[in-house]
Design brief:
With about 350 residues, this protein is of the alpha/beta class. About 35% of the residues lie in helices and about 15% in strands. Bound molecules: pyridoxal-5'-phosphate.
Length: about 350
């Protein structure tokens, strides 16, 4: 049976987190001499001389409305990459525990595992880029703490079958991490609504993709109160800087703009696919639920190098297992897509 106490590292169970100046005093005051800041200001038009809110309350209140779940179930990080790393540091004993990843998938799960000296058990997706549930069941052992599922998946673009993820959630005693970085582009429902059903579910999302804020580094994890409480204890005290907090909050008021861009991106994606299909070096284009498409070609590296020469950068995934010959192409503006397509049309 799932029990967070069986998963947590002992040092994290025992951890007394750093208590920052801003943790110890919250409320109204006019003179702050508690954090060794520069009281005069910043050498900038705006003042950033004060430490930011360690718990990002304003952003979480806005996310509560947008995502429809209580603040106590929300973690905000320096990108969702930080959330991935914190899960490793909280739950995986280096050199002892393991996690399951399902390649081809987002590369940071492996990198974070390597940094934390945690073994990854790799269970390849099927030829349809879906979960191999039997393979996963065989790979799980008593030291398996986390399973990472990316849906829609990067780099393949497809969503993972919902029932398969639910099967894992219902049968695995560790945490199932569902990375929804691309969910805004998808026809699938988020797993956020399943949080009340499954105590071992962690949903990750980000402001880096549809929200257009990759440069600010703001990511989110949604999970049970007890998991979020652990993540908050393990994170660095001021993990999201003040400029990012202010700008993210401002951006979160502008849902309409983001929704318009999502619609436009999907229209552009379909157009891109139609024209790419006419090119004789394109062997296949995989169905995408994201803002990119995975394109199987006769010569990925040749096409990639040709595009680089022309100043166009796509992602060459040909060395990734199950993605041989594939380029991952992000959907751009109509002008960028036109440039890409007309350049590709001249490829010999
Ligand atoms: C599946 C997936 N998860 C997470 C991330 C990273 O998100 P963030 O910018 O919030 O760290 C990416 C970025 O490419 C991604 O593709």
């Amino acid at each position: 049976m799932y029990d967070i106490n069986n998963l947590l590292r002992q040092n994290i169970k025992n951890l007394t987190p750093y208590s920052s100046a801003r943790d110890e005093f919250q409320g109204e005051a006019s003179v702050f001499l508690d954090a060794n800041e520069n009281a005069f200001g910043s050498p900038l038009p705006a003042a950033y001389n004060r430490y930011p809110d360690p718990m990002q309350h304003a952003i979480k209140l806005r996310l509560k409305d947008i995502k429809g779940l209580p603040v106590r179930n929300i973690f905000v990080g320096n990108g969702s990459d930080e959330a991935i790393d914190i899960l490793f540091r909280s739950f995986c004993n280096p050199g002892v525990d393991n996690v399951i990843i399902v390649p081809p998938t987002y590369g940071m799960y492996q990198v974070s595992a390597n940094i934390n000296d945690v073994e990854t058990k790799k269970v390849l997706l099927t030829d349809e880029y879906q979960l191999n549930l039997e393979g996963i069941a065989e790979a799980i052992n008593e030291r398996t703490k986390l399973i990472f599922i990316c849906s829609p998946n990067n780099p393949t673009g497809n969503s993972i079958n919902r029932e398969d993820i639910e099967t894992l959630l219902a049968n695995f005693n560790g945490l199932v991490v569902v990375d929804e970085a691309y969910i805004n582009f998808s026809r699938q429902k988020s797993f956020i609504q399943e949080l009340t059903e499954y105590a071992n579910l962690v949903v990750m999302q980000t402001l880096s993709k549809a929200w257009g804020l990759a440069g600010l580094r703001v990511g989110m994890a949604f999970a049970s109160e007890e998991i979020i409480e652990v993540m908050n204890r393990v994170k660095p005290p001021y993990n999201v800087n003040e400029a990012s907090q202010q700008l993210a909050l401002q951006a979160l008021q502008n849902v309409q703009q983001v929704n318009d861009w999502i619609k436009e991106t999907l229209i552009q994606r379909d157009k891109l696919v139609i024209t790419l299909k006419t090119m004789d070096f394109v062997l296949d284009i995989y169905p995408s639920d994201a803002n990119f498409v995975l394109v199987k070609t006769t010569n990925a590296t040749g096409i990639y190098n040709y595009l680089v020469e022309k100043g166009i950068i796509v992602r060459n995934r040909t060395n990734v297992e199950l993605c041989e010959g594939c380029l991952r192409i992000t959907v751009g503006t109509p002008e960028e897509n036109k440039t890409l397509l007309s350049t590709l049309q001249q490829y010999k």
